[in-house]
Structure formats: C-alpha cells, structure tokens
Specification:
By secondary structure, the protein is mainly alpha-helical. Helices cover 82% and strands 0% of the residues.
Amino acid sequence: MSDARIGPERVRGSFRSESPADQSEHAGRRSPLAIGLTFLAAAVALFLVWQTVSSLLIVFAGVLFAAFLDAAARALAPVLPLNRIWRLTFVLLLLSALSGFGLVWGTGKLPEQTRLLLKVMDAQVDILQEHLLSYGVDLLGPEWGRDFAQWLFADQGRFLSHAQFLLGGASSLLTAVLVILFLGILFAFNPVSYRESLVVLVRQSYRARTRDVMDEMGSVMRLWFVGQLIRIILMTLCVWLALYLIGLPGPFVLGLQAGLSNFIPYLGPIVAALPIALVATPLGASLLIWAVVVYTIIQSIEGYVIGPLIQRHAVETPPAWTLVAIVLLGALFGVMGIALAMPLVAVARVAVVRFYIEDYLGDRMAAAMTDQLVGGEQP
C-alpha cells in the first residue's frame, strides 16, 4: 500500500511544473555557462572581424555607393514618373556616360598637365638641391639628375621592382573598385531583401525597431555621400578656375586632387595644399602667395560655410570625434580606414544612440539632448 501510494506521487511529481524558486535555481546554474559561451562567441566574432576588416570596409563602401544610387533614384522620382528599377537603370546609364566622357576628355588633358607638373617639380628639386649644397648638405647625392624617370629607373632591377609594385597596387585597386561597384548595384536594386535578411536575426518583438534604425542609418549614408559628392565637385571647379586664372601650371590636376581630398575631412585639405605650394614655389614668391591665399580662401569658404550647410542634416558628429576616428582608423586600416572614417562614425553614432542610450538605458531625454548638442544647439 505504501508503495502504491508513493508511486503515483512520484509520477505526478515528475510531470509537475517547476516552481519559481526552482526556475531561478536552474537559471543560476545555467548563468556561468551562458556567460562563458557569450564571451567566447564575442571573442570569435571580434577575431573574424579583425581578420577580414579590409573586406568588410570594401563591403561598407559598396553599401555607401548603393545609398548614393538610391538617393539619385529618389531625386528623380518627381521628374521621371517611372518605377524605382527604371529610375535606377537610368541613373546607372547616366553615370556610365559621364564616366566615359570624363575618361575620354581626361586622356587628352591629364598626361599633358602631368608632364608640366613633373617638369616644375624637377626644377623645384634642383633649386632645393642648390640651396642645400650652399650650406654643405648633399641630400640627394652626386648622381642626382634633373629627370625623375632617369633617377627612378636608373637600373633594370629598380625598374622591375617599381613595375611590379605599380602593377600589384593597380590590380588591387581595380579589384576593390569593381567589387564596390557591383555590390552597390546589387544592394541598390533590392535593398529591402538585404535589410530583412539582417532583421530576421534579431528577436521578433524587436524587428520593427531594428528596421527603423537601419532605415535611419541608410538615410544618414545617403545624405553624407551626396553631400560629399557636391563638395568634391564644387571644390574641384573652384580651385581649377582660380589656379587657371593666376597662371599656375596643371590647374586641372591640382584642382582635382584638392577636390578629392575633401573626402577626408580636416586632414585632406591640408595635404592638398602641399602640391599646390610645391608647384608655385619655383615660379616666384608673388605667385606662391597668390596660390596659397586663393586656396586658403576657397577652402575656408567651403569648410566653414558651404560644407556645414550641405552636411547639416546628414552627419551629426562632433568634429573632435571625427578627427579621432580618422587617426585611429587610419593607423589601423590605412587609406581605406581614413576615407571611410566619417561615415562609419556617423552610422555607429546612430546605433549607439538608438540601441544603447534609448533602448538599453531607457534614457530618451539624454539621446535627444545629444542630438541637440551635436547639431550645434546649446541647452
């Protein structure tokens, strides 16, 4: 009888639900293992990111190009009453035509202006060598010649080593550009499916929030890329015209490098001023002063007036943090890290403010105050 009474109790006990105390005890026992697995997964993820960071930066550049294509298709919506696919196709055809025209036109202009700049640089180096020799300093050696090509390719071994370096760098650059272009086109033609493939990785109750934050990131990237493109075009045209009017050799090449340098904020314009000064130095003090003053005025107007107006609603990031990101990413990942530092910081800021400050900490007031302070408003 006792066994019969105990048996059902055991059976019933085996199927009864756990009490809250038992659940908390089991959760406590599982907690160290879950924490260890979480840290292990995070460490593996960080290691994989570190090993593939160059490829990830190329993928991010492709996403930026897709954001630009999407922005161009959106801008054409009031003008062309077509669906999005046809507008994207028209944008790609227009960009292809402009690129082809630029290559044909640049083929006739760039070699001539490049040769002029090399001649000016040869003369400048000769003047520098003469000044150094007057002080007893032979910096370049007695075998220095006036021709860069003669000094660079003095023997066959040096020529082959330089040719191998140039071919390797050119092939790597061409491969990266092609990958960025194709990724951008693929992302632009079907952005919703790629977004949803990432949204499905989070919990179902949080997918709507993740979708909204990703859309905000896409808007930031669109505005940033379009703004940077406008700044590059304006800077190139203004510097080109100004240097042409004052009579500096190779104005288009110098204007183009000054415009492209604006892709890297703060540091790029400083670096772009060096070739202009080097080309203008051997042509006389007056021309050097004119070139430096004109470039400084153009860069100041662009940096303090036009640039902030264009990027006011695009990238709300404090300048100091942007400069820190440029230095750190440049030291870690080279030229690609420097070029993509600003959009990376802008996208990371959106993720931190929305996911961490607003959702995890629950402090929406602090997030709103951060947006006001970054936008230039004082509390």
